[in-house]
Design a protein that fits this description.
The chain is an alpha/beta fold. It contains ten helices and ten strands. Bound molecules: adenosine-5'-diphosphate and magnesium ion.
Length: 248
Amino acid sequence: MSDAIIEVRGVTKRFGGVVANEDISLDVERGRITGLIGPNGSGKTTLFNSIVGYHPIDAGVIRFEGREIQRLRVQRIARLGLLRTFQQTRIYAKMNCVKNMLISVPHRKMGFLDMFGRHTSEDLEKAERLLDFVGLYEKRYLLAGDLSFGQQKLLEFAMALMNEPTVLLLDEPTAGINPTLINGLIDRLKRANSELGITLLIIEHNMRVIMNMADKIYCLAHGRLLAEGPPEAIRNDQRVIDAYLGAH
Ligand code: ADP
Ligand code: MG
């Protein structure tokens, strides 16, 4: 039996006349790294938005840990342990890294201290531990806006980890990052998976990156599922090659 933590079944999402996702079905296996690829405009981000409850879908079912979630709101789904990051970085440039970490847990149940904008020593310890995990410990009191773009991406990743997600959806985590820093980010993502046990679903533009990380890859084209399989099979799939060559 498969151990799918996320099951997408027959999902369709339209924007007016545009069918952004059409009858998509896929599984995200628990504890694994799953890749989602496809040319620009093929519907990858739309599918992420549907999974995390950012917008309602027109047809289909989405299950998380066996439970239907397609009618639940974003906050509710996040509290269940399913989180996403964005293509555009969302950090607070005028706050230091630690502060960014401490305010990044809106999905947790509000406690007494949170209501006054305070934090517990456990929160602070956790923030520092996770900043260390992504390699930003030395920079923890720098303003987030003074970090390099790649470091801001690492901070954003650490901010997501503050929420202790069961599954993390990453939308083009390496986009815009200096190629020399990409390997460091890949390493952190892999360690989040292997050491922290977080299931990852990653949209990635860089084929080398996703081939290196994913256990299984799904490829979208024109809003439909074009191919699925292990990286080696996807790399050599003529339909996938044609979809990328045909993309402008
Ligand atoms: P990808 O992430 O693969 O580049 P998207 O999911 O962003 O693709 O977009 C898929 C299609 O849906 C595109 O044609 C895009 O223009 C359209 N689309 C996405 N979001 C919206 C929206 N909020 N309103 C209208 N059209 C949208
Ligand atoms: Mg996108």
